[in-house]
Amino acid sequence: MFFCTSCWYSLLLFFAVLAIIKLFVRLTLGVCKSNTCLLGKTVLITGGNSGLGFQTALALAGRGARIIIADKDDATESMKTIAKETNNENLVYKHVDLSSLSSIRRFAKEINEEETRLDILINNAGASGLRNEFTEDGLNLNM
Protein backbone atom coordinates (compact mmCIF):
# COMPACT_ATOMS: atom_id res chain seq x y z
CA MET A 1 0.00 0.00 0.00
CA PHE A 2 1.24 3.47 -0.88
CA PHE A 3 0.15 5.22 2.35
CA CYS A 4 -0.36 3.74 5.76
CA THR A 5 -3.89 3.77 7.20
CA SER A 6 -3.10 6.47 9.77
CA CYS A 7 -1.80 8.68 6.96
CA TRP A 8 -5.12 8.35 5.13
CA TYR A 9 -6.98 9.28 8.30
CA SER A 10 -4.72 12.29 8.80
CA LEU A 11 -5.27 13.37 5.22
CA LEU A 12 -9.02 12.90 5.54
CA LEU A 13 -9.06 14.86 8.81
CA PHE A 14 -7.03 17.65 7.21
CA PHE A 15 -9.49 18.05 4.32
CA ALA A 16 -12.48 17.85 6.67
CA VAL A 17 -11.07 20.66 8.81
CA LEU A 18 -10.28 22.66 5.67
CA ALA A 19 -13.87 22.24 4.43
CA ILE A 20 -15.27 23.35 7.81
CA ILE A 21 -13.04 26.44 7.85
CA LYS A 22 -14.07 27.32 4.29
CA LEU A 23 -17.75 26.94 5.20
CA PHE A 24 -17.29 29.07 8.33
CA VAL A 25 -15.56 31.85 6.38
CA ARG A 26 -18.20 31.77 3.67
CA LEU A 27 -21.07 32.01 6.16
CA THR A 28 -19.60 34.62 8.51
CA LEU A 29 -17.20 36.81 6.57
CA GLY A 30 -19.05 37.19 3.30
CA VAL A 31 -19.76 40.31 1.35
CA CYS A 32 -23.34 41.40 0.91
CA LYS A 33 -24.33 40.33 -2.58
CA SER A 34 -27.84 41.71 -2.48
CA ASN A 35 -28.83 43.86 -5.41
CA THR A 36 -32.29 44.81 -4.14
CA CYS A 37 -33.55 47.96 -5.82
CA LEU A 38 -33.98 50.79 -3.32
CA LEU A 39 -35.59 53.35 -5.63
CA GLY A 40 -38.00 55.48 -3.64
CA LYS A 41 -36.43 54.50 -0.31
CA THR A 42 -34.85 57.02 2.04
CA VAL A 43 -31.78 55.98 4.02
CA LEU A 44 -30.28 57.99 6.88
CA ILE A 45 -26.69 57.12 7.80
CA THR A 46 -25.00 58.69 10.82
CA GLY A 47 -21.26 59.02 10.33
CA GLY A 48 -21.74 58.54 6.59
CA ASN A 49 -18.97 60.94 5.65
CA SER A 50 -16.09 58.48 5.98
CA GLY A 51 -15.12 54.90 6.64
CA LEU A 52 -17.76 52.21 6.86
CA GLY A 53 -20.57 54.77 6.80
CA PHE A 54 -19.27 56.20 3.52
CA GLN A 55 -18.97 52.74 1.97
CA THR A 56 -22.51 51.93 3.10
CA ALA A 57 -23.80 55.18 1.59
CA LEU A 58 -21.96 54.39 -1.64
CA ALA A 59 -23.44 50.88 -1.85
CA LEU A 60 -27.00 51.97 -1.08
CA ALA A 61 -26.82 54.97 -3.42
CA GLY A 62 -25.73 52.54 -6.11
CA ARG A 63 -29.02 50.74 -5.61
CA GLY A 64 -30.98 53.96 -6.12
CA ALA A 65 -31.75 55.00 -2.55
CA ARG A 66 -32.06 58.60 -1.43
CA ILE A 67 -29.19 59.02 1.04
CA ILE A 68 -29.14 61.42 3.98
CA ILE A 69 -25.64 61.67 5.44
CA ALA A 70 -25.78 62.87 9.04
CA ASP A 71 -22.33 63.88 10.25
CA LYS A 72 -20.58 66.58 12.22
CA ASP A 73 -18.05 67.07 9.41
CA ASP A 74 -18.97 68.57 6.04
CA ALA A 75 -19.83 65.81 3.55
CA THR A 76 -19.63 67.81 0.31
CA GLU A 77 -16.64 65.88 -1.06
CA SER A 78 -18.08 62.53 -0.02
CA MET A 79 -21.36 63.37 -1.74
CA LYS A 80 -19.52 64.36 -4.94
CA THR A 81 -17.66 61.05 -4.90
CA ILE A 82 -20.85 59.06 -4.32
CA ALA A 83 -22.71 60.95 -7.06
CA LYS A 84 -19.86 60.43 -9.52
CA GLU A 85 -19.48 56.70 -8.81
CA THR A 86 -23.20 55.83 -8.66
CA ASN A 87 -24.84 58.43 -10.95
CA ASN A 88 -27.22 59.08 -8.05
CA GLU A 89 -27.63 62.78 -7.27
CA ASN A 90 -30.30 62.14 -4.63
CA LEU A 91 -27.97 62.90 -1.71
CA VAL A 92 -28.49 65.18 1.27
CA TYR A 93 -26.09 66.27 4.00
CA LYS A 94 -27.38 67.21 7.45
CA HIS A 95 -25.12 68.46 10.18
CA VAL A 96 -25.47 66.75 13.55
CA ASP A 97 -23.09 66.53 16.47
CA LEU A 98 -24.07 63.38 18.33
CA SER A 99 -22.23 64.56 21.43
CA SER A 100 -24.72 67.41 21.84
CA LEU A 101 -28.32 66.75 22.83
CA SER A 102 -29.40 70.14 21.47
CA SER A 103 -27.85 69.27 18.08
CA ILE A 104 -29.58 65.88 18.11
CA ARG A 105 -32.95 67.47 18.95
CA ARG A 106 -32.55 70.10 16.22
CA PHE A 107 -31.57 67.39 13.73
CA ALA A 108 -34.52 65.15 14.69
CA LYS A 109 -36.91 68.11 14.36
CA GLU A 110 -35.48 68.92 10.90
CA ILE A 111 -35.87 65.32 9.74
CA ASN A 112 -39.44 65.10 11.06
CA GLU A 113 -40.42 68.37 9.37
CA GLU A 114 -38.64 67.88 6.03
CA GLU A 115 -38.91 64.15 5.37
CA THR A 116 -42.13 62.37 4.52
CA ARG A 117 -40.62 58.95 5.14
CA LEU A 118 -37.54 57.22 6.49
CA ASP A 119 -37.16 53.62 5.38
CA ILE A 120 -33.71 52.69 6.65
CA LEU A 121 -31.76 54.09 9.61
CA ILE A 122 -28.11 53.11 10.00
CA ASN A 123 -26.58 54.24 13.29
CA ASN A 124 -22.94 54.10 12.24
CA ALA A 125 -21.35 57.14 13.89
CA GLY A 126 -18.84 56.43 16.59
CA ALA A 127 -15.49 57.40 17.98
CA SER A 128 -12.58 55.56 19.46
CA GLY A 129 -9.66 56.42 21.64
CA LEU A 130 -11.58 58.98 23.66
CA ARG A 131 -10.49 59.78 27.15
CA ASN A 132 -12.92 60.04 30.01
CA GLU A 133 -14.48 63.21 28.58
CA PHE A 134 -17.92 64.68 29.15
CA THR A 135 -20.21 66.58 26.78
CA GLU A 136 -21.72 69.99 27.48
CA ASP A 137 -24.78 68.04 28.66
CA GLY A 138 -22.72 66.16 31.25
CA LEU A 139 -22.77 62.83 29.37
CA ASN A 140 -19.69 60.66 29.08
CA LEU A 141 -18.53 60.37 25.45
CA ASN A 142 -17.59 56.73 26.03
CA MET A 143 -20.59 54.48 26.37
UniProtKB/TrEMBL annotation:
Protein name in UniProt: Dehydrogenase
Keyword tRNA-binding: no
Annotated coiled-coil segments of the chain: none
Pfam families: adh_short
Signal peptide (residue range): none
SUPFAM superfamilies, A to Z: NAD(P)-binding Rossmann-fold domains
Lineage of source species: Eukaryota, Metazoa, Ecdysozoa, Arthropoda, Hexapoda
Keyword Cytoplasm among UniProt keywords: no
GO molecular function: oxidoreductase activity
Keyword line: Oxidoreductase
UniProt cross-references to InterPro entries, sorted A to Z: NAD(P)-bd_dom_sf, SDR_fam
